[in-house]
Amino acid sequence: MPTITHENVDELNAIVTIELSQDDYLPKVNSKLKEYRQKAQIKGFRPGKVPMGMIKRKFGNSLIVEEVNEAIGENLNKYFKDNDIRVLGQPLAIADDNLKLNINKPADYTFKFELGLAPTFEIKGLSGDSKLPFYDLSVSDEDVTAEIEAVRKKHSKGFLEGINDVQEEDMLAISLHELDENGAIKEGGVVKEETFLSLRDVANPSLKDDLLSATLSDSFDVDVYSIEDKDEAYIRKHILGIEEDQEVHNMFRLTILEIKRVDKAELNEEFFKQLFPNEEVTTEEAFKEKVKAEIYKGYKQSSLGHFSNLVFDFLLEENQLALPVEFLKKWLKQTNEDITDEFFEGKEFEAFIKNTNWSLLRDKLAETYKVEVNYQDVEDSTRGEILRYFNYQIPPYGEMMDNMLQKILSDKKEVNRRFEALMDEKILEKTAEDMGKDMKDVSKEEFEQILKDYQESKNPKVEEVAETGVEA
Description:
Layout: E1 3-8, E2 13-20, H1 26-39, H2 52-82, E3 87-93, E4 109-117, E5 131-137, H3 141-154, E6 171-178, E7 191-198, H4 205-212, E8 219-223, H5 232-240, E9 251-260, H6 269-275, H7 284-318, H8 325-335, H9 347-369, H10 375-389, H11 399-409, H12 412-434, E10 436-442, H13 444-457, E11 470-471
Parallel strand pairs: 5-10
Antiparallel strand pairs: 1-2, 2-4, 3-4, 3-11, 6-7, 6-9, 8-9
């Protein structure tokens, strides 16, 4: 067994020494050399008959480095865990010019490493006496009406037949014919026989007014690039379906081919039962009250989300922990070759320190509230995200969902990001329960402005340059 000792330089920095004897690494090196000899295919020698000296010359030094590094890593991690030493970043080797690893001269080795230590602290501000604003949103009649209309559309059985007038929520099937400079349909010009246009996506106010007063088969001459609020490349590719370099005049004749209007679900007891199968909802008035309660539930969840953000900001402000900053700078420079001294004067390094500070607080809070996140939690959360993206129009289980989950969660960094986001969410939910709330009644519009002002007050988001963590 290696001999390991450490000496604190101060509260945030230490030197750890590990002494490896030949018995700690050489048996594994020799074992691997034998494996290599059995598998090596070298011209002039039968398999398994290559001289060991040749195998040593070819693979020996790289194997000894590999096994020594593995022995160091395994034993240091165990030592940190057994002695409750919480390390930030990774140990940094102290250079020793006299230390040489040589397969032909195996020896006992001594290595020294610098450590950046996590501070010892108690969380401040986690109390009901620390009151933060909590916004209680009221639900208006307009909110209820809009939600009911959206639900009726979502549960429609298709489109109504024989529609001749145009309304705000309609989808139009249209044709587009390129015009020449005289305003006539251009011979041999670009023709889009059929494409679809949602009234809510029409960016040209004049065209929108014309369409809303139009009937089936009406035509309008329009600048094709003003129809939707999209760039020219999008219009050419997705609306006209033409090549990037194809010449085309901007004026087109738009003709209404069909007016598609969703056949909304009827407000009847069957529909109420479909939406609330476990509730006794038999009248339209009771249905409206139930919808109102569901909207309020969603508003309250949004309020809790914002309150969690305020808790996060408050805890970071109250707990600005002492960190081994000079060690972290050194570690970042050694592990990120693109980092220069200028980096440490900018916003990105500030964000890195903030993230490190939060990771320590998060670990402490997770321990306090006994919060855990596992892979199944990450998968379930991702499944829910996919379902919301597709407006719950795909099955939650099956081959299609499995393929999307596999694509997203095959990226280890993405899994770690989602793991940390879930951990933050769970921790802040628990923390919010213990924080004082200064209740404030606001409307939906007022709350949306509060959220907008909050987002604008935050510093621009910067990417993390290096991951940091606490090893135990």
